[in-house]
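From the methods appendix. Each design record in this collection lists the tokenized structure first, followed by the designed amino acid sequence. Records were kept in a plain field format so they could be parsed without special tools. The example shown here is representative of the layout used throughout.

RECORD:
FOLD TOKENS (458 positions):
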């Protein structure tokens, strides 16, 4: 797929990948074997009928392809851009055994983009027995998916978002050059047009508790509030000026348009030498944003090896193409600061790989005496997030784990509190958009069944 020229894209926030043309999409769709027992569908957490939508593209029925996608996925333009298809549907593609698998994600993006430009069709509600009133807490991929599935079944759905735009991590966590806000808002608008009432600037746990929502007449509540509390390393100098948590950094860049200061009043200070600690997609996003904001050198500092980077290969390749410098098998042990309290250096230690740990990856082990200094004046720590504890602390009877995640049934999303369901990162910890959506689809069915039983007594 074509990309923006490297020398141009490192100076702007426009989307890097440019998408398929019609000719390219049909050519790619024609490669699909239309397997009678498609393994690719088994690799899709939301169960899209992949051969069916590809067949529509092959025959030039692009809007029909988008409709087929939306039977199971209300966010196809988002998923076509950010889902790790290479580890899911595409990994199981039969053609992949002989060469490159079908580019399912790129075809999904093509169909969704075509429909958005041609005009989106809104399906009619399909009331299925007794219906109820459901509150959705959080408007990220999990919340949007539950909301869409339930409103299609005839339920009254109200979604509460604490920030001023719906979309959650899709809006504030992923940069414009990978997922344009316009795309997210178009898919949010589709879900609103299905009949979902979206209330922004509502922080559940402060404005209303979960129990107060029930007292206000809701039959069930879904918690999809994500994982927005950053992890830190717990090392000296982490509180210096110029040291950011990745979600604070990306919120300032993405949602508050810090890169347009003073037009927007959320400044973001970027030095000449930026170190991003971590190796996931969030780390790549923060590093590539730093480059676009004017940093001269940007480092990814990761304690394991290249082949163990948790980021998508596509994102690591994009970062390398753009000049991001990878310092692998390296771990910071201290940040140093100047007399004004701003970070000006980072002491690191070299690592080597030992035996596999609980994650199955080889454990990084420090090499004694290998300490060295790096000159940095901005640091972004991107080593994962855990859920914000606000709802857990204000909701009696809600079982949580020691990591602050909510305990929920894998098949129904039911929590320990009657009528309360949960899914996505608030249950699993920080994971992928599509895994959150897969859990949300199961929760939507769980909520639907609960309401049916509650209303009919059966």
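DESIGN:
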């Amino acid at each position: 797929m074509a990309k923006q020229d490297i020398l141009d894209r490192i100076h702007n926030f426009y989307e890097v990948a440019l998408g398929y043309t019609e000719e390219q999409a049909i050519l790619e769709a024609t490669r699909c074997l239309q397997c009678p027992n498609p393994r690719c569908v088994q690799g899709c957490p939301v169960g899209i009928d992949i051969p069916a939508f590809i067949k529509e593209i092959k025959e030039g029925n692009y809007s029909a392809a988008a409709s087929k996608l939306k039977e199971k996925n209300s966010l196809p333009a988002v998923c076509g851009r950010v889902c790790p298809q290479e580890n899911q549907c595409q990994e199981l593609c039969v053609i992949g055994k002989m060469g490159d698998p079908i580019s399912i994600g790129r075809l999904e993006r093509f169909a969704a983009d075509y429909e958005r430009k041609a005009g989106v069709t809104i399906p009619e509600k399909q009331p299925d027995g007794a219906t109820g009133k459901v509150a959705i807490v959080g408007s990220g991929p999990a919340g949007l998916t539950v909301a869409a599935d339930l409103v299609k079944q005839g339920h009254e759905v109200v979604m509460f978002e604490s920030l001023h735009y719906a979309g959650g991590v899709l809006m504030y966590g992923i940069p414009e050059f990978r997922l344009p806000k316009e795309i997210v808002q178009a898919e949010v608008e589709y879900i609103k047009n299905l009949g979902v009432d979206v209330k922004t600037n509502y922080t559940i746990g402060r404005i209303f508790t979960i129990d107060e929502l029930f007292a206000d007449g809701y039959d069930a509540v879904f918690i999809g509030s994500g994982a927005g509390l950053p992890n830190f390393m717990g090392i000296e100098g982490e509180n210096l000026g110029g040291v950011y948590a990745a979600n604070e950094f990306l919120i300032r860049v993405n949602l508050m348009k810090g890169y347009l200061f003073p037009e927007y009043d959320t400044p973001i200070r970027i030095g000449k030498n930026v170190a991003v600690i971590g190796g996931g997609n969030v780390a790549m996003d923060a590093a590539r944003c730093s480059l676009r904001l004017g940093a001269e050198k940007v480092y990814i500092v990761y304690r394991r090896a290249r082949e163990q980077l948790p980021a998508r290969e596509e994102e690591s390749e994009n970062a390398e193409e753009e000049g991001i410098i990878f310092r692998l098998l390296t771990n910071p042990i201290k940040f140093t600061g100047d007399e004004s309290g701003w970070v000006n250096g980072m002491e690191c230690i070299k690592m080597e790989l030992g035996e596999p740990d609980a994650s199955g990856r080889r454990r990084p082990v420090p090499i004694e005496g290998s300490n060295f200094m790096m000159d940095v004046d901005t640091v972004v720590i991107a080593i994962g997030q855990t859920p914000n504890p606000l709802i857990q602390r204000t909701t009696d009877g809600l079982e949580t784990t020691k990591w602050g995640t909510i305990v929920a049934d894998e098949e129904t999303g039911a929590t320990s509190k009657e009528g309360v369901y949960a899914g996505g990162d608030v249950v699993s910890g920080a994971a992928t958009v599509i895994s959150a959506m897969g859990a949300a689809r199961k929760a939507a069915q769980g909520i639907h069944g609960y309401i049916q039983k509650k209303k009919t007594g059966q």
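APPENDIX NOTE: The chain has a mean pLDDT of 94.
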